[in-house]
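Ticket #4471: structure output looks truncated?

Reporter: J.K.
Steps to reproduce: submitted the chain below (370 residues) through the standard prediction queue, then opened the result file.
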Amino acid sequence: MSKGKVLVAMSGGIDSTVAALMLHHEGYDVVGITMKTWDYASSGTGAKGKKETGCCNLDSFNDARAAAVQHGFPHYILDIRDEFGDFVINNFVDEYLNGRTPNPCVLCNTHIKWRALLKRADAMNCEFIATGHYAKVRQHENGRYFISKGLDDTKDQSYVLWGLEQDLLRRTLLPLGGYRKTEIRQMALDYGYPELAKKAESYEICFVPDNDYRGFLKRRVNGLEERVMGGNFIDKTGKILGKHKGYPFYTIGQRKGLDVTFGKPVFVTGIFPESNTVVLGDEEDLNKNEMQVGKINLLKYSSISAGTEAVTKIRYKDKGTFSTLTPADNGIVNVRFFEDAKGIAPGQSAVFYEGDDVIGGGIIMRQPVV
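Returned output as attached by the reporter:
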C-alpha cells in the first residue's frame, strides 16, 4: 500500500536522486520534477555560447529523467524562469545596490522553489513534497513544524531553510536528514549509479556560474560603474584612505582585491551607499556584540519572549554564537551576543537555534550610517 503521493524536486545530482529513489523504495508514489530556474539569456551573464552549469543544464535534466524512467515513476521539467528571475535575481541586484550582501539560495528555497513545488503538488494531487536537503522536519508538541539539523554536521543545510512557513513544512519530507554524505554515496552505488557517486557538486550561485558577481552586476545594471565609482575608502574616524571602484563590489570582511596598501592587512568593515563610502579597518573592527534582524520567520514557536537564549548563526558555515533574542517593534529582533561575532554582514541570514532545532531566522539589517 502506498504511503502517499510525493512530488520530489530532482536536480539530477546525487542527493535529490537518492532522495527520490529512497522514497520510491519505501513505498511512496513518487513523481519527479526538475525545475529550470534560469538561463544565460534571462540572467544577463553575458556568457554567450558557454555551457550552462550547475542544476540547470541539459545533462542534469537527462540524468534526473533517466533515474525516474529506470525506476518506473513519472518525471516532468518545470520552467520557473520568470518566477525566479523577477524575484531572486532582481533582489540580488537590489541588495548589492543598497550596500548589503544577499543570500539568493535562501530566498530561492523559501519563496520560489518550495512554493512552486507546493503549487504543482496540489495540481497533481500529491500529499507531500520532498527535496535532497540534509536537514529534518519535525513537529513540536505545540503542533508547529520546524527544521532541525541533519545528522551530518559537514552537510547540514538547516541554515538555508529557516524561511519555510508552516503550510510548506507540514507537507515536506527530507529523507536525507538522518544520513551522512558517505552513506548517500554508497546508496547511489547500491542503486546502480556509480557516476552519481563520483559526480562533482556545484556550490556557486546558479545564475553566476563563474563566481564573478561583480561582472554580473555590471552586465545587469546599465551604467552601474559610472554611478558608483569615485567614492572614498575611509577609516572608522572618517579619514579618507583612497578611492574605491564602486561600493557594490565589496563585502563585509573582504581583505583581498582592495587595491590599497597600508603595510598591514585591512578589511571592509562597513558599506554605505548613501555617502558612497566603504569603511576599512583592522580585523578586530569586524567584531560586534549585537545586531538587528528583520523579516523574521518563526518555526518552532509562534512567538519568543525577551531574553530568549539561542545559538545564532550569521552565515552558512558559521559555528554559531550564544546570544539572547529580544523582540522589538515592527517585527524586528534585537540579538545580543555573549561574545563578539565576526563579520556581521547586512543582507545575510541570521538563524536562531535551540540545540539542533531552528527557532526561526531573519535577515540582518543595515548598520548605522557612519
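Triage note (M.O.): checked the attachment and the full C-alpha cell line is present. Residues 5-132+175-198 form a domain with the Rossmann fold fold (CATH 3.40.50.620).
Status: closed, working as intended.
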